[in-house]
Amino acid sequence: EAPWTAHGLRGAQAQEGGARRQEELQGCPQELLGAKGKRFAKKRYAEKAQMKKTLKMHDESSSRQKVDDDVEEGAIPSYLLDRDPTQRAKVLSNTIKQKRKEKAGKWDVPLPKVRPVAEEEMFKVLRTGKRKTKQWKRMVTKATFVGPGFTRKPPKYERFIRPTGLRFTKAHVTHPELKCTFNLDIISVKKNPNGPMYTSLGVMTRGTIIEVNVSELGLVTPAGKVVWGKYAQVTNNPENDGCINAVLLV
Ligand SMILES: *[C@@H]1O[C@H](CO)[C@@H](O)[C@H](O)[C@H]1NC(C)=O
User: Fold this and answer.
1) Which processes are annotated in GO (biological process) (predicted)?
2) Does the predicted model carry a pTM greater than 0.85?
């Protein structure tokens, strides 16, 4: 066999990699060569990276925990004066984790799976004038949220019409621990599970994450600041019920 044939190459590689590599690759189809092999390797690499990430995330961070509580007031040496107590690290890292999760669009939500809504159901085609073809105007048939200073675009440029009758500014938000419901102002639509277009249009369907103004609940952050906005998930079909029910994400 010539050394540049596929079999020859494979033999050489196996020798190079040694026994461990052989062991790892056991059970994978041996005929994965060329582009196929590359694809396999890429997939495997991605899987491994993901696994490592997951393991790391579940790893309890070994940040310092110790706080000297028996030291008297005013006894901090001058070189420590501009440092915060170490316990804050935990809170901060938790906040960062939360932020990361939000960035990835992953929340631990009460309704993890919702029925996807098709475009035909979401929009109604509007025919205007004598135009026979290329109907480009759409009317949103679901509940929407528009900001407080909203003005409609001129008709010529308005592709999506959000009817006033289906615009909402308030939501009935239940606090899962207090078991109380409050009628809160909606601040924004954070994420519609059906896609970013619906998020930016402010469409609220079942499962949508909205931001509500919780100032009247009087919540405070660990740092002592008053919280305005908190996320909540819509749990009903607002277009059917004429109101929005949501559960606060805590
Ligand atoms: C939240 O509500 C309070 C009181 O009703 C108001 O003063 C504040 O401006 C609101 N915040 C936002 C972000 O809408």
Assistant:
1) ribosomal large subunit biogenesis; rRNA processing
2) no
